[in-house]
Target: Esterase
Amino acid sequence: MKRSAFLICVLLLTGASPAKDLYVRGAFNGWGIDNLLVDQGNGVLETQIVISPGNHVFKVGHKDWSVEWVIDPAASVTVATDTDYILGAQSGPENYLFVRQTGTYRFSIDMSKAKPVLRVARVASAPVATIDPHQDHRQSVAVAYPAFDGKQETARFSAKDADAPLRDYAQSSTMQLRDPGPQFVTYQESAGLPTVRSGNLAFDALFALAATEMKQNSVSDIRDGNYNGGAAIACDCFATGEKWHYVWTRDLAYAADLGLAMLDPLRVMNSLNFKLSGYREGAINPAQVAGSADGLQIIQDTGSGGSWPVSTDRVSWAFGAEEVLKTLPSDERKVFAERALRALVNTIENDRLAAFDPTDRLYTGEQSFLDWREQSYASWITGDIASLASSKALSTNVAHYKALTLAASLAGQQGQRALAKKYGTWAVDLQRAINQRFWLADEGMYSSLTAPHFDGAPMHKFDWLGQSLAIVTGVAGFERARSILERYPHGPMGPPVIHPQQQGVPVYHNRAMWPFVTAYGLKAAAITGNASVADAAYESLMRGAALNLSHMENLEWLSGQPLLLDEKNPALNGPVINSRRQLWSVGAYLGMVIENVFGISATATGVNISPFITTRLRRETFGQSTSISLNGLRLRDKTISVKIHLPPAQPGEGFYLVERISVNGVRVSRHVNWNALPANSAVEIVLGTLAPGQQRIRRVNADPYATSGAVFAPGEPAIANFTRDGGGVRFHIDAGQNGAGIVYNVYRDGKLAAVGLKAGAWRDRSATACYAVEAVDRASGNRSHHSAAICADPGIDIARAVKDWGKPGDRFAVDAIAVPADGEYQVQVRYHNGASQISLGISGGVKWMAVKDQAGRIVARQVIQLPHSRAPAVYSTPLKARLAAGTYSVELDDFYNMSYLQNNSTFSAAGGFDGIFNRFDIYGIRLLRVK
Model:
């Protein structure tokens, strides 16, 4: 791009590099680099963006974020149109643009001023001609859905020729869509993909829409602004969605598990392989890590505190791998199985070093997919990411269980009996630990997560993915599964992904439904026979796709809206980010139809046939039919068609039992071996007896615009004025923003010490205990996150300043540490890691810490984490050490983080192009006696 000498001077004076382009990046473009600011002459840079309604967060910056341009480095600014704002080339919070109506907006930066000036203006657009997509279509149907505001929205479906082998569809909606564009979509059924004929044109069309969007997400190259300079990367893979052009480990794995592995196993395998990487050459000292020398392992994507092991749900990869191994052709299956086992072994063994807590036998790490800290963690956690790292999450531990069981199975198949036994034993032990530590008997559900170190209590927080995964993996027994399904709350549009909701936090994970999570809830409901929960899932998935003309990333849970626009509280609008044809939503819908409605699922040995058709689904969706059919499903080298003969529609609730199954006229059981299936298999299923099943479901409702109330948790309290006094402690329970009707519980070392307290003073006698407080809403019973914990022991603090420490080969030691009394100690490093923001990157500090006695013997050794941090000095995750009174030394040595993996060598920030990055500033160490 040609730039004037004047503009280059201005760029230099303002701190930006003229060799780097500037982009407007925000929620409206998935934070991508689609909107380059183009030189218009006279020092003006400009781009135009079509933006839908919402309170859109955005920034101006370089492709690699080496320089950000902000209005106020101290606070977010809501930008008014046709108003000038001075920019500075510095880091700072995001800005906001509130848009009431879809339109084109021009972002201009005038570089000719003394300081660059940003101006946003709405551009008048020409009227758009009205198009009727249903014109000349011979069959059509309209489906009305009640809306949250007492009105109704309508989706209309039509087909040019309903008798055609492959239909052409049109679909329109009266609901305001999330993104700019027409209120309709057209699509066609494809040869090579299955089709549905149910007598319900809308149901058939929505399945075809999911198949179409799967094809749209099937790409020959992928890209992300943070990798490969934003240039394309060749990969016959699945992109993550319309706004997400890369392959993300957990998104892919859950999408594959839910449905994609049945329909395109080779592309799933390619995508799973893309999420494996070995070490960069020369990056690793093999003596410091576990597994094979090449280190082939699963990639943890960029994220909280600098990625793994703050987050450890990379093991969710096993869900997709297990499912695709059932459907791959034999030659590919053998090769991939061997590669999968090698990657799983390296991942499992290093996770055992970095994230396994032998005390409670659980793995640490952020909740799976709930990886936006402010959305589902305590507000104080953003200033202490090490505390997030040391907490334990139900969903992530269930994913570790899946990785262990798959590795054990593959090892057995490949003749590695000792390895199979080892991982099988670890899996059983982990299942037991999950049930011991996370189950809350008073709630009849699993806790979603524990509080961090110095507390560790399972909190009264719940998430639908974790509950559902515990059921579908078998971690939860039948009675616990029944209890979960009866007790997890469902709104009028479906289940939220977390409960209770967070006050003062916009919609994304908070206050939201995610279709892929709803689909896992459906799988769990089918396992236990809960027809009411299954019906809620069927309705939610169909409604969302029908009115949005796409399988969306997420929806606000009480209204079902793709964007709840709240002008009174614009900062709480949302979902903040939302993409059409989100991959795991697409996989969820395909799996809903194939596996749940038609009952077809692949196993390692054959095909299971177990449809779950409720009376309501029969009555309301298939009411005009005596049978429904799925045609052209290809599994391995088989082509399968399925016809289900329906019983007469009946009132009431329940589901229909299978009366008989036949394949090509021969009666079979519910499981048919691969070698017993003909190349062309016509499966016929006759449904018979009505089973009442489990019908209990917990229904809740509230005003979608409410910012507090029965569906919300109280805000977390704080501990103030903590005083150590003669072998005891005193402190003040600070209510924070909580008002009347809230009481407080005190936890001592993770166990309840006092309940139902008022805010104010509290005392206890202990010299070593650690304390945390939670708030309880007496009316709803909902509980807050715990406060940050404070310990009675003042600690042994030793100052030792070292800047930019942690290059391979660096050593750090503090000698002659006098420990005055026997006890259990927690040893931490005081540090700062400013390599990246707390939400991004691959450069979290990960090191070995060792405590040695006077004779130089190691008395404790553990991997510790020093994640990205906002504060100038914070504490690492702790090393646990039982020490006798005496003199000790503490040493640090290298381990590794995700920057050591070859696939991250093109990452744009720290740990990427410039080589591995595992460095931070050290300010000292602390030893706290906790017992």
